UniProtKB/TrEMBL annotation:
Highest taxon, organism lineage: Bacteria
Upper classification of the organism: Bacteria, Pseudomonadati, Pseudomonadota, Alphaproteobacteria, Sphingomonadales
A GO BP annotation: lipopolysaccharide biosynthetic process
Keywords: Transferase
Keyword Transferase listed: yes
GO molecular function: glycosyltransferase activity
CDD domains named among the record's database cross-references: GT4_PimA-like (cd03801)
Full protein name: Sugar transferase, PEP-CTERM/EpsH1 system associated
InterPro entries: Sugar_tfrase_PEP-CTERM_Stp1
Originating species: Qipengyuania nanhaisediminis
Gene3D superfamilies tied to this protein: Glycogen Phosphorylase B (3.40.50.2000)
């Protein structure tokens, strides 16, 4: 095997949000197989501060600054007939670096992380192509449009992204999705004549890092009553909708009966999320240096997502911390755990209230379910176990060229 070109739409360090966690571990797995050249985007100073960590694992790097305003990306998308998602991540400097790297280095495999980066793959490349779409992103925009959220814009984005996803699946030797439901959805959108190789490459969790026995005893909550916690990137629309749903439809009864408080923990909260923090019983923490104390001190972790594509890292991390998770069916997608044994699925708001009441009144043993959850993810969904799948994606014979 030669060398690998890895293209990711976000800097894989630090692994502090869902897509970055996945790309981070995918990169680490690839680096075990062969030298990896990395092209990516930096969005924040925090990204740039981790350049040294990326340098330690990569053979070469091009880190483009993602500074293009969304309005400009929208104009470019309309003029070019492309999705806004592609226009937002198009950079001439990165395009030039990709072309030069492919010409100068012995690269026989290109691994593309997320559909936005497929535009950088030249038609002339005749080596092996692996595309990790994670999930069928077009379906998310279609759902936004169906819900009446900027319907024309999101319908256009969904339609054009669906065409790009089909193009990439036809172009790739292997297209990876995060769960069987996402893989089945993509297969249903592609003609059987395309003979696309679509496989599942699941998400994992670092069970050594997310471990309730790590000695993180400092509880961040002063409140002595039940502390219910939601974690996630808080400028991501499905997360915003989830915390608004919980605050207005679930929390009031729990706060009145049990003095429960709701804690929203995660980076970049929107103005609407900050407004929730002004309500009684709701605290918006924003970004925190370490999520583990917030999870470890939670009475329960909630994930009432209505739109959820792929596997939710927030759920895996809470399970690894031996917390009881009460979640929607959508948030449970792609996690082959058992309802009632490893977490509790609530199919509507009333069910979520009921299951949390069962916990708070002692009819459910949250500690026992949390312990089962921890054992499940340690056995079935650790990143170390998932690393073994990467060689089969990249190398048809599954051999490790560095170990050979």
């Amino acid at each position: 095997m030669g060398e690998i070109l890895f293209l990711a739409h976000r800097m894989p360090f630090p692994p502090n949000r869902g897509d970055k966690i996945r790309s981070h571990h995918l990169l680490k797995a690839l680096a075990r197989l062969a030298p990896v050249h990395v092209g990516t985007f930096a969005e924040t100073q925090e990204d740039r501060d981790h350049h040294g960590e990326l340098s330690a694992i990569a053979a070469s790097i091009h880190m483009a600054d993602r500074t293009k305003p969304l309005v400009l990306a929208g104009i470019q998308a309309v003029l070019s007939g492309k999705p806004v998602s592609l226009a937002a991540f198009h950079d001439r400097g990165l395009q030039s670096w990709v072309e030069q790297t492919l010409a100068a280095q012995p690269i026989d495999t290109v691994v593309i992380f997320s559909g936005q980066m497929g535009q950088y793959l030249p038609d002339s490349f005749d080596g092996r192509v692996i595309i990790d779409l994670c999930d069928v992103d077009s379906a998310k925009f279609e759902a936004y449009a169906e819900a009446g959220n900027m319907a024309w814009i999101n319908a256009r984005e969904g339609r054009l992204l669906a065409a790009e996803e089909e193009r990439l699946a036809r172009r790739a030797d292997v297209t990876a999705l995060i769960s069987e439901s996402e893989a089945a959805l993509l297969r249903s959108r592609i003609s059987p004549r395309a003979e696309a190789d679509i496989r599942v490459f699941g998400n994992g969790v670092d069970t050594q890092f997310f471990d309730p026995a790590t000695g993180l005893d400092q509880a961040p909550y002063d409140h002595r009553g039940p502390n219910l916690v939601f974690t996630g990137q808080m400028d991501y629309a499905p997360n915003v909708a989830a915390v608004e749903r919980f605050t207005h439809r679930v929390l009031p009864e729990l706060a009145a009966r049990y003095d429960a408080q709701f804690h929203i923990v995660g980076r970049a909260p929107t103005d609407s999320v900050h407004e929730l923090g002004k309500l009684p019983g709701v605290t918006v923490w924003g970004g925190v240096p370490d999520m583990r104390p917030f999870l470890g001190a939670a009475t329960a972790v909630v994930a009432p997502l209505s739109i959820a594509r792929g596997v939710q890292n927030k759920v895996l991390e809470a399970m690894a911390m031996a917390r009881l998770v009460v979640l929607s069916e959508e948030a449970a997608t792609g996690i082959p755990a058992q309802d009632g044994q490893h977490f509790l699925i609530a199919r509507d708001d009333a069910a979520m209230v009921s299951k949390l009441r069962d916990l708070l009144e002692g009819r459910r043993d949250g500690r026992a379910i949390g312990a089962e959850a921890r054992q499940f993810v340690a056995n079935e969904m650790s990143w170390e176990a998932i690393y073994e799948q990467v060689a089969t994606l990249v190398q048809p014979d599954g051999k490790n060229s560095r170990a050979a």
